[in-house]
Amino acid sequence: MNGRPFTPVDECPVDVSQARVYEHGWQSWSPTTTYRVTDTSARPALGWQQVMRFRPETPAPATGFQAEGLLVVEPAPGRQRVYAAADPRTEIPSIRAALHENRLVVSADGPVRSHDTEGTLGRALEGYGDESAALIGVEPRPAPTVWCSWYRYFLDVTEDDIVANLDAIERDDLPVEVVQVDDGWQAMVGDWQSLSDRFRSLRDLASRIRDTGRRAGIWLAPFTALEHSELARRRPGWLHGAAGWNWDQQMWGLDLERGDVRDHLGEVFGTLRAAGFDYFKLDFLYAGALAGTGGRGGPEAISAYRSGLRTIREAVGPESYLLGCGAPILPSVGLVDAMRVSPDTYNPTDVDDGHNPLRGQACIEGRAWQQGRFWVNDSDCLIVRPGFGRREEWARLIERYGGLRSCSDRIEELDDWGLDTLRRLLGSPPPPTPFRTLPEALEK
Known about the structure:
By secondary structure, this protein is an alpha/beta fold. The chain is about 25% helix and about 25% strand. Helix 7 packs parallel to helix 8 (about 300-315). The longest helix is centred in the C-terminal third of the chain and has 19 residues, at about 300-315.
């Protein structure tokens, strides 16, 4: 718990039969969507999800709503009241709303500004996005098209797998501008200066990619280290707070207030940039904004997080492209070029089952207004292999709301439909400007 008290902000009269609430979640993987005013928004089903999908230090109450930095109430169709962080660069308050008869009682644990709008919920969100982007000075730039190793090879990826797909992309003349190595190239999460035994030379691999006229990309989880990593063993004082469980180990966040931690990040990213990489997928970034074992939270955690992202940008230069993932959304505005706006949509259990829902759809639609205002929206990778039961539905969603277009299949395994879909969607990425229309739930 962050210990900061919630104080009343407003009491908003609502039409209980028609009123809705838009709740914006903390990070890429947090639920973000609209609800009826009589609902209770999503809560973590398991303990680890509070840390890895919600705001770790501020659990929501049992009922009602809790947004992180942005909550919009639609008391009746055509009218909205927006409650938002005064300045997302400095503090992101948790904003709660609870229904009491025909009034929605709003409270927050930090400064909140509010205003009324008319029109659709989507227009209210776009207005907030325009104001915030202007305040911070954001100018989104085009995203490259990407092939990513993750959803086909996962942790078993090898250098030879990357080369084989690079050759297939070249042979089939696919419109891929970046070939990105995902998780599995490093010795362990946290140990970014040592390779796994499946990779020989990052410099040689990047050179081979660049020799085809493409850019070399790479994945890191820069703000976390695993408990059995060499970094955790040698630098226990750098570990700041428990960041969840993955890779069959406890994860720890790094203390980004420490100058030696930032120096280390600068060295890691400077080395990768010198090796030829200029596209960086930055994952599990929420670990850099933890309140930590000392209880630090609020503005201090936001400041530390943003200092970590600035360190990375300084190390890789302004021309490199930064994609945030698992990242606190509002604190990242102005510091990354693209942002994952949803949890992972593809799951291996979907391979032979077309009935599972697209897990990321609600967030993709709920954050569609951020495209071209804060950054380019990344809705996750296209999966077009024959075994994915939802591939056609997923491709339609990417075509509509995918700003950054990426794919993650073994090219040799694709059928004609898969190859044609890749050519069409990667060959026609949208510009880094707002989508012309928003999802129906935001427009009605």
